[in-house]
Write a structure and sequence with these properties.
- With 127 residues, the chain is mostly helical.
- The chain contains three helices and no strands.
- Among the domains are: 25-76, no CATH class; 84-114, no CATH class.
- It is elongated, with a radius of gyration of 34 Å.
Length: 127
């Protein structure tokens, strides 16, 4: 075995193996196929584990797709309005514990008729 000494004044030398030439594409491809054949043989020996692993991966991929679909439609996709970056929310809060309705139609009508800072105002009623 060759010993390599580390020194600050010369670069480190890597040990050379007698068959150090790189594997060819065909050789590495055969290694991959051998690994895949071994994996499928192992899965065949333990069908319960294989079924559980496949079901777990399937549920994980399905849940990931569902969550991404919701996040994409709610958070990532822009609103279907022109200049959606200029949309604001006006909130009128009632005192806490008063039981009063936070806003009313007369307040909305007043804002709609007299607001000059907004090009348009829309109201949403929640029951």
């Amino acid at each position: 075995m060759n010993s390599v000494l580390l020194s600050l004044d010369r670069p480190r030398e890597l040990p050379q193996h007698r068959d150090a030439e790189p594997a060819s594409y065909v050789h590495s491809n055969m290694l991959i196929w051998n690994d895949l054949r071994y994996a499928f043989r192992s899965f065949g020996r333990t069908p319960g584990f294989t079924t559980l692993a496949v079901l777990t991966i399937t549920v994980g991929i399905g849940a990931n797709s569902a969550i991404f679909s919701v996040v994409n439609s709610v958070l990532l996709r822009p609103l279907p309005y022109t200049d959606s970056g200029r949309i604001f929310q006006i909130v009128d809060n009632a005192p806490v514990g008063s039981g009063a309705i936070a806003s009313s139609f007369p307040k909305f009508s007043f804002l709609h008729d007299h607001a000059r800072s907004f090009s348009d105002i829309a109201g949403v009623g929640l029951c």
